[in-house]
């Protein structure tokens, strides 16, 4: 059975991260790119936000006994099979996982313009995923 306290802690932390990211999204592309502190913070808090999403997904899937998973992408399929997300959000979640992998593993190649675009266009997807986990409280 999913433990609400586990989700509560991660959702609270995710909301904290999203607040920081929302503030960073207010900067123009030029202001954003001109400040290593801004893009560095954005990259780190995006990474932490996506990790929180994936950790909550792993917790729910394991505790609910939905079947095995080895990678974060497997979790998307489990949530889709449970009817908890629509295919379009599932596809965006897969892209978010890929973006996190880029931030973590290919950090020398990160296009900071893409980071800025994610701040402007992608935070609502993280918020939508957070709402799915809030259903388990």
TrEMBL record:
SUPFAM superfamilies: Nucleotidyltransferase substrate binding subunit/domain (SSF81593). The keyword Hydrolase applies. It comes from the Bacteria. The keyword Oxidoreductase does not apply. Keywords: Hydrolase, Nuclease, Toxin-antitoxin system. Belongs to the HepT RNase toxin family. This is DUF86 domain-containing protein. It comes from Thermus aquaticus (strain ATCC BAA-2747 / Y51MC23).
């Amino acid at each position: 059975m999913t433990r609400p306290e586990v989700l509560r802690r991660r959702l609270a932390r995710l909301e904290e991260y999203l607040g920081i990211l929302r503030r960073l999204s207010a900067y123009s592309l030029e202001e954003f790119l001109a400040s290593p502190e801004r893009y560095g913070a954005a990259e780190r808090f995006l990474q932490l936000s996506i990790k929180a999403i994936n950790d909550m997904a792993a917790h729910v899937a394991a505790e609910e006994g939905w079947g095995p998973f080895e990678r974060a992408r497997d979790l998307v399929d489990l949530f889709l099979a449970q009817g908890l997300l629509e295919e379009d959000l599932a596809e965006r979640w897969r892209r978010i996982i890929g973006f996190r992998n880029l931030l973590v593993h290919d950090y020398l190649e990160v296009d900071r313009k893409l980071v800025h675009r994610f701040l402007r266009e992608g935070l609502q997807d993280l918020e939508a995923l957070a709402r799915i986990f809030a259903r388990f409280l």
